[in-house]
Amino acid sequence: MNDNEKSTRLTTASGKPVYEYENSQSAGPRGPLLLQDFFLHEKLAHFNRERIPERVVHAKGSGAYGTFTVTNDITKYTKANLFSELGKQTRIFLRFSTVGGEKGSADAERDPRGFALKFYTEDGNWDLVGNNTPVFFIKDPKKFPDFIHTQKRDPYTNCKSATMMWDFWSLNPESLHQVMILMSDRGTPVSYRHMHGFGSHTFSFINAENERFFVKFHFKTMQGIKNFTDAEATQMKGIDPDHAQRDLVESIENGDFPRWAMKVQIMPEAEAATYKWNPFDLTKVWSQKDYPLIDVGVIELNENPDNFFAHVEQAAFAPAHIVDGISYSPDKMLQGRLLAYPDAQRYRLGANYEHIPVNRCPYMVSNYQRDGQMRVDGNGGSQPNYFPNSFDGVYTDEKYKQPAEDLGQHVVADWFDRNAEGENDHYTQPGNLFRLMSAEARQHTISNIVGAMKGISGEKRELIINRQLCHFFRADISLGLGVAQGLGIDVTQHAGSMMHGN
């Protein structure tokens, strides 16, 4: 670059022009450095603070901007403005992630994948925060910290522990459905582009007549499903630990924009009480024969963020963020996340995290939240910071009131057993899933389970393995036998007790 092309003067953060950028000021060419070299201190101090706390879960991720386009009329179910007319487009941001690993972990790890969408709508931002699986390992949020601890590092060895994972899963048979998906080749997708996404939880729609419908969200990849075998995933971890990030960036750069078809399952509110499964149990799916998929629209990713940290790392999602026409459900895990997710973002990014551009609603926002670290928008100026007041004319709008929820006439507050009678069939759906797999997929799943369980060690090894085998046998006898054979366990003498969980 010649002198005529230089147009931007280098300055400190406070705007003072910088004379020397690369050499520290010192007492002589070989002497000690001077305290007065403020720019040296500014550079080092900022460098020390460049890393914000990583997410406790979903730490490593990738993301991009795009659009959601309505292709089918669902206004009889919801009055949400983003679905109001065919062809309507809404800007979105989608973040993919692995769940259990740290920021430096490999993209090809056997792990669920996060699938978090932010819709920038005229009625506010709607965050739909799910995974690439329709179910999860647990169904009560009180168990979430314990579960995540087993996916992280052993407090003694500081290594990942198969013993911790399988001990927890074997003691919580509700996990079996998700374990079956994780241990199939679906646990190692080839890329973020080649996997489905799900809202996972049960949410609700509210229409213009204030009728409530329960809803599950599905995002079907239009690139086709592609998964690694366990051997291929292991190889990819060594070849390129960032392969999924690289694939997403390059596909968008090349104009090969990833797309997903958005579909929903709709359950009338009255049918929730009589459905064969608890429709709010995150470890269960709704049969698509009972509640077929309904087309809604298409999401397309067509814009790479120009700075990973500013957009992807600082993106903050919370299922508490809904818009008019969309609401919650009695799903216990969802109810727990309504508190936990915004709390996590305030810890990680600060109280004003929704002022960061990737999280900011692009339409009007009006409230009385003031102050806090990194408030850079004028902080409301001289306007009142309380409500009601006699000055600013801000009002509440009754038309956005949601219909009352019917909780029954004799609702009792108590600590209910999540696996009480009628809520304790943890085997039918995982068994059905296994039997729906092709012969090759069943063999891969068994092989992946065997490989993962061989890492169980310690004095409780036999106890944990036998306990988990009970669950596999109860889901499907051939599954249990296959895993037992792979682990070298002779079950002929007590197969009956295993199949009955004794």
Automatic annotation (TrEMBL):
UniProt keywords, alphabetically: Heme, Hydrogen peroxide, Iron, Metal-binding, Oxidoreductase, Peroxidase
Q: Which Gene3D superfamilies has this protein been placed in?
A: Catalase core domain
Q: Which reaction is the catalytic activity of this chain? A: 2 H2O2 = O2 + 2 H2O
Q: Which domain of life is it from?
A: Bacteria
Q: What is its EC number?
A: 1.11.1.6
Annotated region (Disordered), positions in chain: 1-27
Q: Which residues participate directly in catalysis? A: 58, 131
Q: Which residues form the Catalase core domain?
A: 11-395
Keyword Iron listed: yes
User: What are its GO biological-process terms?
Assistant: hydrogen peroxide catabolic process; response to hydrogen peroxide
* One GO molecular-function entry: heme binding
Q: Pull one GO CC term from this UniProt entry.
A: cytoplasm
SUPFAM superfamilies xref list: Heme-dependent catalase-like
Positions with a binding annotation for heme: 341
Q: Which cofactor does it need?
A: heme
In which family does this protein belong, per the annotation?
A: Belongs to the catalase family.
Checking PANTHER family in the record gives: CATALASE
Name listed for the protein in its UniProt record: catalase
Q: Which species does the entry assign this protein to?
A: Pontibacter oryzae
